[in-house]
Amino acid sequence: MKVILKEDVENLGARGAVVNVKDGFARNYLLPKGMAMRFTAGAQKVLEQERRMYELRQLKAKEEAMAAAEKLSAVELTISKRAGDQDILYGSVTPTDIADLFKKAGYVVDKRKIILREPIKKLGEFEVSIRLHHEVAPKIKLHVLKEE
């Protein structure tokens, strides 16, 4: 069965692609979940229109993310945590901790958008990325100090 994908499907194709799939896969999975629609001339026109709207929304979202990234990139955060003698933390600094620091600084950042390459488990200065858009991820400096 020929279908048009309404969203990216792993190992199958990207949004807007016309693909041939087995009838059962289309009827039982793709169509009921709204991930695809049957290929017809009318459906292709509708999808083209949706694609244009999607691109406009993505462009606007990227512009908003760029503006927010400029503001956030100037921010430096400092957190105090309990640590041992070798400057190793009891526990770690989590995305929730960082989101709370942003909240105290007057910014709203979702903890799921904070990217830590590895857990922060020692004192020092770290760079933390924030995924505002799939193309925009400003880096923030985080200072981890020993709690007195």
Folded structure, characterized:
It contains three helices and nine strands; from the N terminus they run ββαβαββαββββ. The protein is of the alpha+beta class. The chain has a four-stranded mixed beta sheet, covered by helices on one side. A three-stranded antiparallel beta sheet has the order 2-1-3, covered by helices on one side. A two-stranded antiparallel ribbon has the order 5-7. The termini are far apart. The mean pLDDT is 91.
Shape descriptor? elongated
Write down the secondary-structure element order.
Answer: EEHEHEEHEEEE
Total strands: the figure is 9
Largest sheet: 4 strands, mixed
* Percent in helix: 25-40%
What attributes does this structure have?
single chain, 148 residues, alpha+beta, three-stranded antiparallel beta sheet, 9 strands, 35% helix, 28% strand
